[in-house]
Amino acid sequence: MSSEVKVPVLGESVSEATIGQWLKQPGEAVAADEPIASLETDKVAIDVLAPHAGVMGQHIVKEGDTVTVGALIATIEEGTATAAAAKPAAAPSATAAPSPAATPAAAASAPAEEAGSGAAALSPAVRRAVLEYGIDPSKVKGTGKDGRITKDDVLAAAQAKTAQAEPAATAPAAAPAPAGGERREERVRMTRLRQTVAKRLKSAQETAALLTTFNDVDMSAVIEARDKYKDVFQKKHGIKLGFMSFFSKASVLALKSIPAVNAQIQGDEIVYFDYVDISIAVSAPNGLVVPVVRDVDKLSFAGIEQAIADYGKRAKEGTLTMEDMKGGTFTISNGGVFGGLMSTPIINPPQSAVLGLHRIEDRPVVRNGEIVIRPMMYIALSYDHRLIDGREAVTALKTIKEAIEDPTRLLIDL
Prior knowledge:
Layout: E1 2-6, E2 16-22, E3 29-30, E4 35-40, E5 45-49, E6 54-59, E7 66-68, E8 72-77, H1 81-90, H2 102-115, H3 117-120, H4 124-133, H5 151-165, H6 192-207, E9 210-218, H7 220-237, H8 243-257, E10 264-266, E11 269-271, E12 278-280, E13 282-284, E14 287-289, E15 292-293, H9 301-317, H10 322-325, E16 330-334, E17 353-357, E18 360-367, E19 370-384, H11 390-405, H12 408-412
Parallel strand pairs: 12-16, 16-17
Antiparallel strand pairs: 1-8, 2-4, 2-7, 3-6, 4-5, 6-8, 9-19, 10-11, 12-15, 13-14, 17-19, 18-19
Helix pairs in contact: 2-4, 4-5, 8-9, 8-11
């Protein structure tokens, strides 16, 4: 007797997804509520859970296939996890060596059968890394919350594994370089997230009248304030004081002063918001994602930093949800963490503006008639010229600049 596994409800306005990876192969034991497949939607990865314990049956669809909500994708056969685990365990003894493709799967599934709920705690990104590098998660010490294994933990284990194997490697084995100047190509299917990002960014270019205005900011005052209070701040709030909270607060001042920058065009109407929900661009295993920090105008510095840190961690682990990505009235993208000096960020539709931050570097500037060295950052505001005039955009960016150069303005709402 078998039971059907169908695509679960994916979220508001999301009707289809792509099979990103089968986490369980036919014949493998599964526990109730254990992830058996990872679905890639337009925004995040979602696990498909086993409805009950048993043995993985047939895969109805392949990795890379597009499926809709409610579609049948697999079956779960009746059987005990112990019996199912015993059968594949005996198989390796009958063969000289397992196939390379089977080894990572065995390494990932063995701890799952032993720990059950422990394997279910692995995020999709971590599971993919475990399978890719052939790491046994039961032997990896987690550094995440409550001892949870992160992708960095798996990568560190993979590097350690490689380092141990290197002494045993011989010189001839380390020469698989293409012979005779051979050139190779590799074709990789675009993930659903990357396809969606590509469509949205191209749509933004074709629909909005994009324009970017630039300014530079003297970061001296913010750096001084951060250095002065960072230890006390972390001791009191349990979170580091970063620059993003300053720029978020400065953006609130600008958006409240220039409401059009926080507005959106919807059809033939302009929608103005009396709240500020800022989408913060963070890196995820499958690309850039923009979870939303809500009601930034009401949050404290600590509240903003905690929200950003939580999103960054969950993006890395691949555990962001649809609700985390929903909405947003303005976006901040920090290319400076990657060393970017200047850029023209693209708006995140249906938003009308995005603030781009860049790296801080010492540059000569003139202060009181003298040339001095200051830590400077270029900032950019890209905006939809259909809604936001140049004067408004420049004023908004200037407001952000003044608030960063004189953080007291953030306290007195000036």
